Input
Amino acid sequence: MPASRLPFTVIGGFLGAGKTTLLNRWLREAKGLRMAVLVNDFGALNIDADLIAATHGDTTALTNGCVCCQIGDDLGRALVDVIEAKKPFDAVVIEASGVSDPWRIAQIGMAAPELSLEGVIVLVDASVAARQSADPLLADTLARQLKSADLVVLNKADIASAEALAEARAWVEGNAPGTPCIETVEAAVPLALVSGLSQPALAPHACGPGCHHDHDHDHDHDHNHDHNHDHDHDLDHDHDHGHGTPDHGAIFQTWSAQPEATIPAAMLRAWLREMPPGVLRLKGLLRTGRGAQGDEWSEVQYAGRHGSVRKVSPPPGPARAGVVAIGLQGHLPEKMLKEFFAA
Output
C-alpha cells in the first residue's frame, strides 16, 4: 500500500457546461502541485501554449508538473499508470464525457485502494438548463448527472436571464435536493474547494513519507443518504457577475482552527452526518484518542454530501491538529464550527 491515498475528483456535466474551462483554470492554478488530469480528448482542452512542456502520444506533460492524459475507453489502465508513476502525483482529476454518468466513473476509481474519492462536481449551463431538461431525449441523462453530484456548479450565470437562472435553481433542487449549489462565471471554482489539495498548513504534514493509513476504517460514499437538513440555496451573494473573472475571495470564505481537544472518531462521524448547511469542503488532521503509543490521529474529510474519518499513524515529531473549512461568503457557519471544535 502507498504511504497515503491519492485524492481524486470527478468533473461531470453536459456538453458545453464548462468542464474544459474549469480544467484549464485548475491547471493554471496548480502552481507546483502535481495533478494528473484524465480526459476523453485533451485536444479539446486548448491548454495554454506556455504550459506545455512536451507531448508524447496520448499524454501531454506541462511545465508546472501536471500531466494531461487522453483515456479513451481504458480509464482503469490510465489510473494504474498514474498510481504507479515514478514521481508521485498530488491529485487526480477525471473529466467525464458530456453524456456519461460521473458516479460510474467515480466507482471505477473507488475500486482502487490507492485512491480516495474527494468529490463529484457537476457543472450545469444555467442559461439553457431549463430548456435542456425539458427535452425528453436529454432529461434522464441530465438528472442522473445531478444525482451523482457532491457539488453542483451553475455556470454561465452572467449570460443567463433572471428567469432562466431561477428555473435552473429549481430544476437542480428538484433533482438533487440538499446538494450544495453555487453560481459561477467562467467556471470560477477554486482548486482547493474539492480537489483534496486544501490540506491545512500543519507542522508536520498530516501525511508525510512515514504516514500510513489504517484501511480498517468506517466511511461512506453513499450518494443516497439523507443528512436530514436543508441546504440554503438562496445564493444571491454580492459579487459582480460581469464578464471578468470573479475574485475567489469575494465569493468563497475560509475558516481554520488548530483544535487542542481530543475529539473521538465516533463523534466526528456523527457530526459529519449532520454537517451544518453552508460547508462545501472541510479537511483536517485531529487527535481522536489516546493509546499505548500516545495520541491517536485521524484525517477528517467532507466534500459536498459525504464525509470520512480515517486513522493515520502519529505524525513524526511535535504535531498540531488543524482543520480548514470552505464555504460561500456569508454562508459558512463559523460560529457552529468554532463551538464544535472548541468543545
The CA atoms of residues 17 and 125 lie 5 Å apart. Confidence is low (pLDDT under 50) at residues 198-249. The radius of gyration is 20 Å.
